[in-house]
Amino acid sequence: MDINGKYLAHGIIQGGMGVGVSLSELAGNVAKQGCMGVISSVNIGFKEKDFLTNPFEANIRALKKHIVRAKEIAGSNGLVGVNIMVAVSHYEETVKAAISAGADAIISGAGLPLNLAELVKGTNTLYAPIVSSAKAAMLLCRTFAKKAQSIPDFIVIEGYKAGGHLGFSADDLNNQTCQDNLEILKEVKETIKPFEEQFKKKIKVFLGGGIFTGKDMAEAIQTGADGVQIGTRFIATKECDANNAFKEVLINASEDDIRIIKSPVGMPARAIFTPMLESLENGKTFFAKKCNGCLKACPKGDKIPYCISRALIAAVEGNREEGLFFCGENAARIDKITTVKDLVDEIITEYQSSMSTFNMA
Fold this sequence. Notes:
By secondary structure, the chain is an alpha/beta fold. The protein contains twelve helices and 14 strands. It has helices at about 25-30, 55-75, 90-100, 115-120, 135-150, 170-175, 180-200, 215-225, 245-250, 275-280, 310-315, 340-360, and strands spanning about 1-5, 5, 10-15, 35-40, 80-85, 105-110, 125-130, 155-160, 165, 205-210, 225-230, 260, 270, 325. The strands form three sheets. Strands 3-11-10-8-7-6-5-4 form an eight-stranded parallel beta sheet. Strands 9, 12, 13 and 14 form a four-stranded antiparallel beta sheet that branches.
């Protein structure tokens, strides 16, 4: 697959997972298999010595290191992207740092990246917004066209079954009344068509949120997607940057353990119900007064039940008691740790078999 001059052997994007779950080791090895490996930029410098005293410089320094390292691992294969949340402080500086370090693509969600096209314009870096509706896709394409005379290289749709922060209301998530992935895909494809015609450029569309098997991938592509985004399954790989204890929490999770929670930033999110979340229900607070201002939307000081950044860092370091473990809805289906190569091979083999079945029908 060609995305405006950059080649992917397989139409798979590995979802960006922070804090520290998808860094250079995972992203580089995913790219090595001909897919797009994605580094999560949020608080990427948490292992730097000056992270607590100078988080901005620590994060920028670490981001550049991880991009360079991921590309070394990938060799000439695949693409290395960076997921940069709109909600983070220093968004523009982070985008510019990723571009300067050689990122092949910038993917942005957790808000509307209205100035992303302007930041990327004139560079060789691809750009893509994450959307959960055709309405968001329309607004972003209009904005990019007007302000930067540009449209996205690709769009990532994150459906309601995704992990982490979700672009749906808590009521719809809890009542299971969210719009179906394939319906969103069809609407987004129709929405972007006039922009593609105007700019004489195809916007590739990747469907994420609940994509688990090669059959799911085939169904998405049969419906009009160019590829898929898969996040949670890549956590349970040997190359994933998270501590093995994080992977064990994932493997041992049951369907009942996977819950919709309210994040400190005010958005609903999907996570594994662990002791920290249970304690929060009983009124305990975690890391409440140690905010380093990483997210613009977070309330500060006593108004916050816990610091999401530190809870995510605790998780990636394997602290089951105090960690926040984000995951997708299908996490309970994962029962073992594998390698990135074996996982990609499994998905592609299933995909090819499913496509053959579709074509015979």
